[in-house]
């Protein structure tokens, strides 16, 4: 017998038919002798619909009433899933976040979890019930409903798994797990069996949509094992857990890309301390995150500063940068939306040399020019021209990941 937390996302509960299939899957897990706690998201598209209505009425700053409205999506899917299991003859106990309670801070629309009270969950499990909980929501010290931000149901599931000391937290998504590259681009891509928290955090920050970053940070801090699985197959997925010697022996675990970035270059600014800080501070004050940064010292006491932002932030970032550049008497500001970021990730980089040289040589051999570089001890990311993205992924996968002992063929049940 195991104590299992299962989290189902919006596509998993998008229709009544899907909900009934998920109910049957949960019951199979229960009938295998496991105690089961389920965390559920709103039906696919429902949260977007609710957010759109709040924005129409009050713009981006709706405060506590925003959370009151947006949290209702999970209440619907929660009730329907519990009803489905009850109709099949099983004892399903449903709870909204405030009923447990899941207590949070008062940062509306992006609250952080302070504590999950496990008392009601554990009591119901002892009675043989299947416990179903609304993700994405909680309650603050003032008794006000809060929401955890987009993807917050993943964080709810991990926090609940930690509170009840579950053996595993299964996150059910549209994916069968994490792959060594995008299978739609690279036919040799293989499903990764096990991956460390740090590697998975890098994948998430570099463009992978499999898991939410906050949930991974919490899982690492609390040592909660996450099993990423598909809602639509019985195949084993990817286990996200603490690193071990086997993981450390693999040079590169996978390749990930992100086409959502754009580049801004400020040409000919004074080459002296504080210039880059002026530009980046102005962007930070506007809540625009900056990713890659390159500064090149030129001639005549001038320098060029290049950085990347999200494409969605480019219009505002360009206006701010042009204003600062004008004050600095820069020669020119150039924006480019036609870039992408391609990265390699692996624990083995910590103890092996020559990884960057091998990566850059593989790209150069295929005439792919590197525009910017960003590194950590377990990743190397490069900005390239967007039209070369798929080629770069295939080239790097061939260079580093074939064969990959941490991976299994796509579709495998192992």
Structure keywords:
27% strand; alpha/beta; 35% helix; Carbamate kinase; globular; VC0802-like; 414 residues; 2 domains; eight-stranded mixed β-sheet; four-stranded antiparallel β-sheet
Structural account:
This protein has 414 residues and is of the alpha/beta class. It has 2 domains: 3-173, Acetylglutamate kinase-like (Carbamate kinase, 3-Layer(aba) Sandwich), CATH 3.40.1160; 244-414, VC0802-like, CATH 3.30.2130. It has 13 helices and 22 strands. The strands form 6 sheets. Strands 3-6-2-1-9-12-13-11 form an 8-stranded mixed beta sheet, with helices on both faces. Strand 7 (137-139) and strand 8 (145-147) form a beta hairpin. Helix 1 (16-31) packs across helix 4, helix 10 packs antiparallel against helix 11 (314-327) and helix 12 packs across helix 13. The chain is globular, with a radius of gyration of 23 Å. The protein starts with a strand and ends in a 5-residue tail after the last strand.
């Amino acid at each position: 017998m195991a104590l299992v937390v299962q989290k189902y996302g919006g596509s998993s509960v998008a229709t009544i038919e899907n909900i009934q299939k998920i109910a049957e899957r949960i019951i199979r897990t229960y009938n295998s002798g496991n105690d089961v706690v389920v965390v559920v998201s709103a039906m696919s598209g429902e949260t977007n619909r609710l957010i759109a209505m709040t924005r129409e009425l009050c713009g981006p700053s709706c405060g506590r009433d925003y959370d009151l409205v947006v949290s209702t999506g999970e209440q619907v899917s929660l009730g329907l899933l519990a009803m489905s299991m009850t109709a099949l003859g099983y004892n399903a106990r449903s709870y909204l976040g405030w009923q447990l309670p899941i207590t949070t801070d008062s940062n509306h629309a992006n609250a952080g979890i302070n504590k999950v009270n496990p008392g009601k969950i554990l009591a119901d499990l002892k009675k043989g019930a299947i416990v179903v909980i609304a993700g994405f929501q909680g309650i603050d010290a003032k008794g006000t409903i809060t929401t955890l931000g987009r993807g917050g149901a993943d964080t709810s599931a991990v926090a609940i798994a930690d509170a009840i000391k579950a053996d595993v937290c299964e996150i059910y998504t549209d994916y069968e797990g994490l792959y060594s590259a995008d299978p739609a681009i690279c036919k040799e891509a293989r499903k990764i069996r096990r991956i460390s928290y740090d590697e998975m955090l890098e994948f998430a920050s570099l463009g992978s949509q499999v898991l939410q970053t906050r949930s991974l940070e919490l899982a690492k801090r609390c040592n909660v094992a996450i099993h990423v699985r598909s809602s639509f197959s019985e195949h084993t997925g990817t286990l996200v857990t603490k690193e071990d010697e086997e993981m450390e022996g693999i040079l590169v675990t996978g390749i990930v890309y992100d086409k959502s970035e754009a580049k801004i270059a400020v040409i000919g600014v004074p080459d002296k301390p504080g210039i880059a800080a002026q530009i980046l501070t102005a962007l930070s004050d506007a809540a625009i995150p900056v990713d890659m940064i390159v500064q090149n010292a030129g001639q005549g006491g001038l320098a060029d500063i290049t950085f990347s932002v999200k494409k969605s932030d480019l219009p505002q970032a360009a206006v701010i940068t042009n204003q600062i550049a004008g004050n600095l008497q820069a020669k020119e500001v150039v924006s480019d939306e036609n870039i992408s970021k391609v990265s390699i990730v692996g624990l083995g980089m910590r103890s092996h040399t020559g990884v960057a040289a091998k990566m850059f040589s593989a790209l150069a051999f295929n005439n792919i020019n590197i525009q910017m570089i960003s590194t950590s001890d377990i990743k190397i990311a490069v900005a390239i021209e967007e039209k070369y993205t798929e080629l770069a992924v295939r080239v790097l996968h061939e260079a580093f990941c074939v064969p990959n002992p941490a991976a299994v063929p796509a579709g495998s049940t192992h």
